[in-house]
């Protein structure tokens, strides 16, 4: 069966397609909501989903799932009334084959987000906290604070790179280190040798501390010194690697991810995960798309082209972009990032949420090349506006 995104929606029927294609929200009131200082991600995503908006705010893949994944989803609808059992085994087997590991070395998650939360619950406590740099992906630290486990947050350095020495120093007595590589939101990356040395240093400084290395943006890295940490996780019981299908595979809305590590380490995490945590449709897409190298290579090329265009625009205009080793970049816009975000929204361009520790930096996700060509014209207009005292 051959299916495109357009024919897939059409096949659901006119009524359902109307629900999928209609605007999810009304624009009115959302700018005011953000202007009042509403920080919640839900508000940002509601703003981004306004009609006509260029959505480069959440590091999503603008091209969506590949053809093979869409075909798998369409074919799986007949099983949507059943709880997944064999389908979970099929997905695990496909991932294990693609990564060259045993099925006992991985567990599935509802996106990698569920796995990050499970790691916080499994490895931290009121006595043994979390180390998560500032800024990084906030979910682990936010959840640790929610359950009242301590959080240490060593700041990034002057080039927005994770300060590995500071993280090692903070690791003593910690239960878990969250190490996002490439790091969200700074788009910086550490090479394989540096990561291996870092893991060794943590093992010496705090032998019981677990290191979770989040490789959500693995496929987008161009830095030749970078390499996956999966071999380290297979050899070291205190290292776990997480991956997601939300980024290069374009499945953010389907919610599927996985963790790789030694079986006993993963069992501690799995006890905090829901049963049947990945739905039938996502499992079908995972089993099909994880080995779809043609799709991955195509998405890497598309992202690289649009990313280079966008980075060149900012750098040629005199704005600092320290790194762009993902499908987003952090740009020093030399003004309040929240105000810049709101001004961009007025021009129908939604960019990433502000990060308080980097108040003048805006996170720009990479859309399609045509989208980025439109977006940079909005950026050009907004950046030409003088910064007011209130900003």
Report on this model:
- It is globular, with a radius of gyration of 21 Å.
- 43% of the residues lie in helices and 11% in strands.
- It has 391 residues and is of the alpha/beta class.
- The protein contains 16 helices and 11 strands.
- It has helices at residues 5-11, 14-21, 30-35, 41-48, 67-76, 86-99, 111-123, 139-146, 164-170, 192-205, 230-235, 263-270, 280-289, 293-316, 337-346, 369-383, and strands at residues 54-56, 106-109, 130-131, 151-152, 176-180, 210-214, 239-244, 257-260, 328-332, 349-351, 361-365.
- The termini are far apart.
- The strands form 3 sheets. A 7-stranded mixed β-sheet has the order 2-8-7-6-5-3-4, sandwiched between helices.
- It has 2 domains: 5-65 and 294-383, Alpha-Beta Complex (Aspartate Aminotransferase, domain 1), CATH 3.90.1150; 67-292, Type I PLP-dependent aspartate aminotransferase-like (Major domain) (Aspartate Aminotransferase, domain 2, 3-Layer(aba) Sandwich).
């Amino acid at each position: 069966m051959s299916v495109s995104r357009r024919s897939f929606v059409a096949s659901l029927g006119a009524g359902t397609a109307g629900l999928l294609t209609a605007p999810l929200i009304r624009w009115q009131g959302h700018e005011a909501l953000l202007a009042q200082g509403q920080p919640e991600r839900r508000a940002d995503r509601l703003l981004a989903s306004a009609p006509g908006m260029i959505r480069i705010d959440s590091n999503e893949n603008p091209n969506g799932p590949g053809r093979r994944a869409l075909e798998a989803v369409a074919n799986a609808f007949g099983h949507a009334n059943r709880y997944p059992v064999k389908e979970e085994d099929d997905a695990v087997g496909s991932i294990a084959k693609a990564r060259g590991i045993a099925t006992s070395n991985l567990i599935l998650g509802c996106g990698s987000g569920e796995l990050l939360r499970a790691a916080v619950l499994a490895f931290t406590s009121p006595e043994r906290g979390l180390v998560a740099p500032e800024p990084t992906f906030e979910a682990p630290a936010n959840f640790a604070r929610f359950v009242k486990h301590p959080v240490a947050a060593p700041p990034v350095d002057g080039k927005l790179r994770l300060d590995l020495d500071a993280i090692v120093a903070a690791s003593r007595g910690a239960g878990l280190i969250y190490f996002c590589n490439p790091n969200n939101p700074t788009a910086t990356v550490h090479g394989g040798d540096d990561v291996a040395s870092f893991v060794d240093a943590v093992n010496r400084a705090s032998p019981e501390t677990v290191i979770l290395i989040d490789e959500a943006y693995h496929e987008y890295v161009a830095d030749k010194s970078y390499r996956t940490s999966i071999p380290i996780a297979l050899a070291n019981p205190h290292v776990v690697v997480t991956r997601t299908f939300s980024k290069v595979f374009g499945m953010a809305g389907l919610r599927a991810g996985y963790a790789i590590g030694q079986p006993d380490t993963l069992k501690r995490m799995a006890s905090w995960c829901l049963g049947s945590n990945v739905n039938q449709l996502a499992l079908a897409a995972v089993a099909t798309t994880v080995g779809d190298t043609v799709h991955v290579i195509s998405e890497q090329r598309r992202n690289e082209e649009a990313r280079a265009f966008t980075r060149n625009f900012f750098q040629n205009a005199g704005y600092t972009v320290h790194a762009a080793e993902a499908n987003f970049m952090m740009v020093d816009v030399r003004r309040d990032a929240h105000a810049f975000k709101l001004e961009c929204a007025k021009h129908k361009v939604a960019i990433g949420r502000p990060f308080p520790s980097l108040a003048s930096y805006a996170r720009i996700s990479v859309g399609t090349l045509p989208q980025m060509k439109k977006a940079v014209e909005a950026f050009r207009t907004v950046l030409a506006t003088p910064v007011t005292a209130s900003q």
